[in-house]
């Protein structure tokens, strides 16, 4: 991992997301979106990392990311997803879900659609509503699923004014994140350490399955599904622990890996190289987990920029029913054979890294120190 | 009390009728609250409609400038890095490391200046363009002062290299403004002095240099007196300049932007081996000569003069007055403190000046809606009052989302501020209860290890159960895990739910013993005993005998305890109905228990029973 560019952007970044490249194209990632938080005026912004010769018109340096356009966003940006090439969905702390449209010809963003009361609290016995933050959003064209602090799950469809389906009080605690398992199933994580699987084909407000950690009910903050194996899911918790789950097998995680010293905010499997996993945390670090089995070459001796490699044998819990036929290295049970190499990607400790995204050889992350880091050489 | 340097500026508050009404105000950490009172200024009792608003007035606009935010964030990183490597700084490398840190700070200031300059050029209206330009000059002045402090206090350049550093300093700051001017004066210098000083390595001693320079100086003087340059007045004045002739230098005043440029040029030609302690003599005279009595020194001039006099305290004091933000003095003082310079000065509040400035700066950061996170680290490195200040500030941060609350809690937990953790969790738990998010409320009380609140949440659940006859949020109660132990009421809730589950799965014996243990172990709240006993009824009515004689005796004892202990309350009407119902239930229970006892005795007495 050679060069990582940092740029201070005068806003605390809560979310960063790469714009997806058209399927089948050979392009690499070029544009990413960010959302800010904790400002009096928050923005959703689009940035470009295209090559700019030596010094561009603004005096910026080659390779540094440049702002393309931005638009005001009411409330903190709690989550951000690209709906398609031009549309971005943003979840707000005011309980509003907004779809922004990017106009490439004049480089502007505009509001395409908005559901303003997607998430709200109702007090006991009182008809009045107060807004509740929307904490997570996930898209699968044309559907958008949102979850919030009100424990509600909404299913929206682009261009439909009302929610297609709403599950009220799906959870008695806060839902922190959501991901698609295989449509129409979704998986949510909450602040009492449970994973719940919901099937939209079924009526009723009950989850089809509940999984939870043994021991302390540590809140789970993030979740991501393995790109190829739809039953493998990774979650990150408030204690910085990374858990790998197999949702077909039992109700407990397959592996628990001691990772960060504070809340893990995001976990991502690499979309095309799923043996690689990335996590970022409140403790100011971003880790690259490499579970690919060509280990000898990877035992690198680089000393530059804070890259440190450690080998960690993972602790297994409840390995009773794991079959030999599973090919995923994340679920494998042989600690002697499988070592995961962990690398810290940021050059120095900073304030919390709130978000990261990976696409191809590119990685982008945003921090509370108001900086965005981009690298285009993840696997050098 | 300091005298005012000028007239205080007047700020008009929109909507407030200051002519007719009296205003009142109150100071905050970085802001002021102002509003109209209902007192009229003059004695007329006119009922003028008052302004209903309270205004927040901020004096520190720097904090809100987008570009300056980068300065704050980047310098925060350098500050924290400096504190962290403090233990590793030893010996010779210490000075080099500190100089590097100083250069880092300066490069951050320069980057900020550059960006502000670009913004000034690109500004759409002249007013904001002027504002940006004035910010640029403030930053430029800051970098000028910092650079000089670096040379004199951190680098501690001895005689010889001192002048080189000063030359660089001047060249950097004067020449950037107008490179054309620099060429005229600057180009003559390199050929003469670079080869002279033999820059790399510099193996010559000071005395050798002095001798050489003396020799060269005499040669110049000889040329002048011989009239070698008599044919060209320009060359002649050039020669005079090179001899350090003050009058000749002053003739070129337009080319010298300021007195310190004049000073360094003078020193170059007349006293190149100047010692640091002698600097202030030349500085003072240069200032006087340059200003020539026409204008008085500006604040910047006073600061630089104080630096030349090696009066660090005065430098910091003047900077604090002149600059509107604590950023500069806080970071510079901290760096100088690491150079162990502040202890040697007899300040009456000693080394606490560093802490005072850092506290002021950090408090200012906490007044900002977003930069408060930076302030935390500054408080961490104030040994005396940092922790207390942080405790006070952190509780007052508005928590609009759970994610922000989690960050604040993490900060508190990392510093073992258990009181703050408890109070923040309690606020969040109360909010959750009000919004009917009982699961969230429970998760906050678990985080704070707040048994009392866990009891409150459990009571809510139990009340809901009594009202509705079924549990809400089963996903939570069924999965409490070890958190159940946090409070007795919570344990009871979990176990009670377990009892229901056993009954649902037709595990009657387990259900029975659990029910009994719930009653006998005293964790069941008294008001719930009737419900528990009533729950025992279906078990008592089963075909098979579930409760043993022992258990039945226990149940009967509980029942009698309950019946005898019930207080008589007022309100005859509805209360009597309630009592009737209660009495009926008790009768039914007594009957069922008696029947069960009979069956149990028979069962245990007979051969198959056990």
TrEMBL record, chain A:
SUPFAM superfamilies: WD40 repeat-like
PROSITE patterns (UniProt xref): WD_REPEATS_1 (PS00678), WD_REPEATS_2 (PS50082)
GO cellular component, one term: nuclear speck
Keyword tags: Nucleus, Repeat, WD repeat
Gene3D superfamilies listed in its UniProt record: YVTN repeat-like/Quinoprotein amine dehydrogenase (2.130.10.10)
WD repeats, residue ranges: 213-255, 257-299
Signal peptide coordinates: none
Pfam families: WD40
InterPro entries in the record: WD40/YVTN_repeat-like_dom_sf (IPR015943), WD40_repeat_CS (IPR019775), WD40_repeat_dom_sf (IPR036322), WD40_rpt (IPR001680)
Main localization category: nucleus
Compartment annotation: Nucleus
PANTHER family membership: NUCLEOPORIN NUP43
Protein name: Nucleoporin 43
UniProtKB/TrEMBL annotation, chain B:
Keyword Aminoacyl-tRNA synthetase included in the entry's annotation: no
UniProt-recorded Gene Ontology molecular function terms: structural constituent of nuclear pore
Top-level taxon in the UniProt lineage: Eukaryota
Gene Ontology, cellular component aspect: nuclear membrane; nuclear pore outer ring
Main localization, broad class: nucleus
A Pfam family hit: Nucleopor_Nup85
UniProt-listed GO biological process terms: mRNA export from nucleus; positive regulation of DNA-templated transcription; protein import into nucleus
Classification via InterPro entries: Nucleoporin_Nup85
Compartments where found: Nucleus, Nuclear pore complex
Subunit structure, interactors included: Component of the nuclear pore complex (NPC).
Functional summary from the UniProt entry: Functions as a component of the nuclear pore complex (NPC).
Name of this chain's protein: Nuclear pore complex protein Nup85
Originating species: Panthera tigris altaica
